[in-house]
Amino acid sequence: MRASDRAYRALRTEILEGELPAGTVLAEVEQSLRLGVSRTPLREALARLSSEALVSTHSGRGVVVTDVSIERVNELFEVRQALEEQAARLAARRRDPAVFEALQIEFRRAHELLENGESGLREYYELVARLDEAIDSAVRNEFLVSTLAGVRTHIARIRRLSADNPERLREAAREHLTIVDAIVDGSESLAAHATQLHLYRSLRNITESLSTQSLSTESLSTESFTTQVRTP
Fold first, then answer.
1. Range of the domain at 76
2. pTM of the model
3. CATH number, domain at 198?
4. Do 167 and 145 reside in the same domain of the chain?
5. Cα–Cα distance measured from residue 179 to residue 193, given in angstroms and rounded to the nearest whole number
6. Tag placement on the chain: N or C end, fewer CB within 10 Å?
7. Could you report the per-residue pLDDT of 82-138, keeping only the tens digit for each?
8. Helical (H) or strand (E) element with 216
């Protein structure tokens, strides 16, 4: 594997997993030493991350991990809704029933995965990823699939920034099953509607979670400032 590819994959994973949070400055010298690559392949890796809007260049600061604001989340979901609803319609029209029937069986037991802690949660997200892959394969439209891939990069990051609400996860599992049922039945309108409902509820959960985190941060900052003012 080329050094630039290795650096790109390492940084991308760390950003998506939240190990490099928003606002982190990716200094060339520091990151080159840490990743064990020279500065040229590191710059290539950073350029790729910039094209995915995972990092951006700021005057006086250098390359910084991009922020995830509620405004950006709303913009992302506007695009996601249009793409995923159409993908669901096409999947229902062009699907291989056997593929989605197998997924249907797994989603009927998804609630069991969500009761098995971290390992079960990982398996659930892997199941959702396999559903995405099955839909991508069924639509048979490389332009739609490639555009969706870019959107999902940011969805994966946002998912980790928002709290894993157990009730929301159970609700989402039921929504995914409804989508799969519609695709199995070949119902384009129901597949699109079920996808729309799922995305609406997902967006609501994410924005509520991010709002709560923002309020908590502001509260801590105010408390810290008050303490400093009162300290003689």
1. 70-216
2. 0.77
3. 1.20.120.530
4. yes
5. 9
6. C
7. 999 999 999 999 999 999 999 999 999 999 999 998 899 889 989 999 999 999 999
8. helix 188-230
